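Handoff note, outgoing to incoming analyst
You'll be picking up this chain. Sequence as last confirmed:
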Amino acid sequence: MTGQFTREPAPHPGVFRVRPLALETCASWLNRLAATYTLTLPKLLAGLRIPTTGSRPNPATCEIHLTAPAWQRLAHFARIPPAHLDKALPSPISLAPPPAARAAGTWQWLDTSALPAAACDLCTLAHTRGATRQAWIWAHPHRLLCARHRRWSSPTRAQTLLNVTSLPELAASQRSHQRLLHRPNARHAWQWAHAITTRWYDHQHTCWPRFARRLNHLKAINTAAGTTSSLTLTAQAAVIYPETVALARLIATHHHPARDTTRFLTEAAHRLRLSRLAPAPDDLMTTWLTHQPHTPPEA
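Most recent structure output, in case you need it:
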């Protein structure tokens, strides 16, 4: 991210040391850095002589690509080693970099399918020593749950934080998800499992009674998070999470399930705590069992 630093003169170090959150977006960190000095984000960058182009900055819907000289200035001003910023602010998106010979930045709107998630408000409050509850992080599926504070970051356009205290099974599933990540085919297995359970949720079958129970718990405790219809969408990822993790781990360990479909479905039913599992011909699980295409369908 930083590249080779130039010898451009940097501003004096700032008074405050503003540390990034883990997986925080660059835009979110810059927004907090500016707020620490009671500045708007554009005024902070202008003061550091970092001109920007592109979209109007919004840390909830935009990300910024900075040249190496710009990173040098920001690291110097924030009193954070550049290597620490590289590690703490990993951007999964690809942006066309501005000319690297000078300090500059390019803003870009993010697609609705790639928006960051709201970070746990209680973690953010503690990290910033009470300065703010609001920050944005990249929404990796295994990091959406804050197990300490029982908060779930909904990776939807609403970017809602849900209180999931009433669903203790999410924390156990997150630990299982962490173990899944050690497998080389973890991403492929997760994509298929998530597509399958999302279809089950949307069409209200297979695990729907269990999904409905969790959804009702979340609606009861998150009355300020939105309407009943909006919560049906924003709570979806949390509601299906345990079954998605269980199914992903099973998919990751079965490379040729079509050779013994009955055995696979029996094991799947056991892991999903179902008496039996008999997917319909148009079920995505049937598609995976019979064809195993490399690219998962849209959930």
